[in-house]
């Protein structure tokens, strides 16, 4: 009888060990944390508008996106910067969960951009983009998360998209001056994108008329059209989703608002699984990030923002949506 009990105990232990092993395998099989990457520009901006004039204000599509998205999830940043300005980038990122492993420090002048703000929009006054002549973008090998390629010179933009071809979601943004100067390269970016972000002027410059028709023409999963104070609309195969801008929030400087929309939207949507039913809420997070961004000059407001501030702003946007429904 002692031997039988022992055998039974051994059998029970064996079953437990087998269950534990299956449990260990289940734990190991859990998907890794969602990955979000932004590739784009780091800029020194000269801006003038109702707020006055600033020179060499740190900006760029990669930083606006990263600072918005990193309030929600960690972000990997891919961008070129001149060696003289590396410290500024490190300082503005601060303790945010932004991985700068792929920040490419070059012996070249950082991208510079000049703009005049008129009636809530920036009028492009020119740029100096010679850093793109020497930048050979490097991205994480085998990246399979979500990637956003912000506005850089279009030849570098589609090169980045080619190297990020394994991304589960690949999105891109536009810049009016590049769309006009390099239309063929700009449309190549659209061709490679799954999601595309643009404002009405950029959309028109690419020959767009009907957003849904444009989305189908270029086989896009989604087209996001930014309309400033009129909000943001996303067009997908399931129809159009519109989220209004917050009317009572201060508007100081609209630079980077579109990148902040993309950062907030994609970061939130990634954390909720990227399902169609979560798109409207994700857009609300994007609008909230943009609302914070435009309340200060350049990156200042979004760099100083906290998650608590973002949560409050999101609630304002959602309340606005509920009132309109």
Mind explaining what this structure looks like?
There is one protein chain. With 325 residues, the protein is α/β, with parallel strands linked by helices. The protein contains 13 helices and 13 strands. Strands 5-4-1-8-9-10-11-12-13 form a nine-stranded mixed sheet, sandwiched between helices. A four-stranded mixed sheet has the order 3-2-6-7. Strand 2 (43-49) and strand 3 form a beta hairpin. Helix 2 runs parallel beside helix 10 (257-271), helix 5 packs parallel to helix 7 (183-192) and helix 11 (279-293) packs across helix 13 (307-324).
> Briefly, what CATH class?
Alpha Beta
Q: What series of H and E elements makes up the topology?
A: HEEEHEHEEEHEHEHHEHHEEEHHHH
Q: Could you tell me the mean pLDDT?
A: 89
Structural class: alpha/beta
Task: Report the major sheet.
Answer: 9 strands, mixed
| Shape call | globular
> How many helices?
13
Radius of gyration computed on alpha carbons: 23 Å
Tell me the CATH topology: UDP-N-acetylmuramoyl-L-alanine:D-glutamate ligase
Largest sheet, spatial ordering of strands: 5-4-1-8-9-10-11-12-13
Quickly give the CATH architecture. Answer: 3-Layer(aba) Sandwich
């Amino acid at each position: 009888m002692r031997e039988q009990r022992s055998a039974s105990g051994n059998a029970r232990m064996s079953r437990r060990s087998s269950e534990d092993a299956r449990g260990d395998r289940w734990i190991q099989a859990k998907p890794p944390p969602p990955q979000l990457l932004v590739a784009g520009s780091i800029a020194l901006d000269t801006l003038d508008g109702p707020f006055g004039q600033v020179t060499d204000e740190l900006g760029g599509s990669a930083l606006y996106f990263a600072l918005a998205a990193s309030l929600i999830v960690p972000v990997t940043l891919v961008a070129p910067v001149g060696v003289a300005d590396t410290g500024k980038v490190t300082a503005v990122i601060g303790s945010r969960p932004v991985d700068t492993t792929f920040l490419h420090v070059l012996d070249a002048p950082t991208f510079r951009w000049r703009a005049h703000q008129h009636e809530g929009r920036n009028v492009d006054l020119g740029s100096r983009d010679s850093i793109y002549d020497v930048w050979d973008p490097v991205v994480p090998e085998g990246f399979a998360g979500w990637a956003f390629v912000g506005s850089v010179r279009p030849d570098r933009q589609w090169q980045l998209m080619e190297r990020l071809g394994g991304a589960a979601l690949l999105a891109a943004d536009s810049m009016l001056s590049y769309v006009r100067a390099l239309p063929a390269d700009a449309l190549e970016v659209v061709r490679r994108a799954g999601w595309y972000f643009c404002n009405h002027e950029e959309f028109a410059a690419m020959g767009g008329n009907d957003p849904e028709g444009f989305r189908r023409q270029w086989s896009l999963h989604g087209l996001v059209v930014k309309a400033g104070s009129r909000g943001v609309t996303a067009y997908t195969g399931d129809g159009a989703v519109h989220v209004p801008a917050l009317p009572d929030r201060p508007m100081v400087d609209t630079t980077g608002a579109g990148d902040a929309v993309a950062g907030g939207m994609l970061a939130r949507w990634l954390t909720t699984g990227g399902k169609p039913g979560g798109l409207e809420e994700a857009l609300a997070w994007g609008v909230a990030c943009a609302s914070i961004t435009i309340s200060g000059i350049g990156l200042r407001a979004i760099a100083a923002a906290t998650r608590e501030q973002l949560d409050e702003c999101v609630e304002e946007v959602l309340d606005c949506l509920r009132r309109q429904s």
